[in-house]
From TrEMBL:
The gene is tal. Its EC number is 2.2.1.2. Transaldolase is important for the balance of metabolites in the pentose-phosphate pathway. Pfam families: TAL_FSA. It is found in: Cytoplasm. GO terms for biological process: carbohydrate metabolic process; pentose-phosphate shunt. This is Probable transaldolase.
Length: 214
């Protein structure tokens, strides 16, 4: 499983990429809205100048024609822009049009296996099932990852699964075990992945022994 970072914040993106473990970026309108004094387009230029992998940029239009127009404009910013489209009939019409033009797509707000299957058949490059938001309403978000992974394997579907709405490190481990190709992870959770008290204790003990040598 690969890591993407789920943010539109440049400091977080720079720091995460300097770690060498992150392969792409996902944004959404809520994440972009947190970034002040910069246009969406300029932020995408900044991100794609730094990140060679997939950078998801979400359309705002709700009709297929509007999504296609917006998506083409966003895709023209850089070759590694992936157009993020909501899971609706119009969204899938747009995905189908983008796939015919070789524009990569990420179908977002996936909450069922049938939605993922439909998105894949429309030609989606990625589907993003939202693990945390399903957990929030008493469902099991990770079970959805397993189901989609099984269906895609049975039917030899090449669409990649991005485990989204990741809230804590255990989501990351479980998404990997259940067959997600990618987890898109907030910066805070990426930081948490590094932590283990025995690592800190071990470093402390090694240094203490080193400093006490005769
Ligand atoms: C990523 O593609 C999603 O937009 C994001 O993971 C949603 O996360 P949230 O449920 O924490 O807002």
């Amino acid at each position: 499983m690969k890591f993407f970072i789920d943010t539109a914040n440049m400091e977080e993106i720079k720091e995460a990429f300097s770690l060498g473990v992150v392969a792409g970026v996902t944004t959404n309108p809520s994440l972009v809205a947190k970034e002040k004094n910069v246009s969406f387009e300029d932020r995408l230029r900044e991100i794609t100048a730094l990140v060679p992998g997939s950078v998801s940029a979400e359309v705002i239009a709700l009709d297929a024609e509007g999504m296609i127009k917006e998506g083409k404009e966003l895709a023209a910013i850089a070759p590694n822009i992936t157009i993020k489209v909501p899971m609706t009939p119009d969204g899938l019409k747009a995905v189908h049009a983008f796939s015919k033009e070789g524009i990569k797509t990420n179908v977002t707000l996936i909450f069922s296996a049938n939605q993922a299957l439909l998105a894949a058949r429309a030609g989606a490059t990625y589907v993003s099932p939202f693990v945390g938001r399903l957990d929030d309403i008493g469902h099991n978000g990770l079970d959805l990852i397993s189901t989609i992974a099984e269906i895609f394997a049975i039917h030899d579907i090449s669409t990649e699964i991005i485990a989204a709405s990741i809230r804590h490190p255990q989501h990351v481990t479980d998404a990997a075990l259940r067959g997600a190709h990618i987890a898109t992870v907030p910066y805070k959770v990426i930081q948490q992945l590094f932590n283990h008290p025995l690592t800190d204790k071990g470093i402390e003990a090694f240094l203490a022994d080193w400093n006490a040598r005769s």
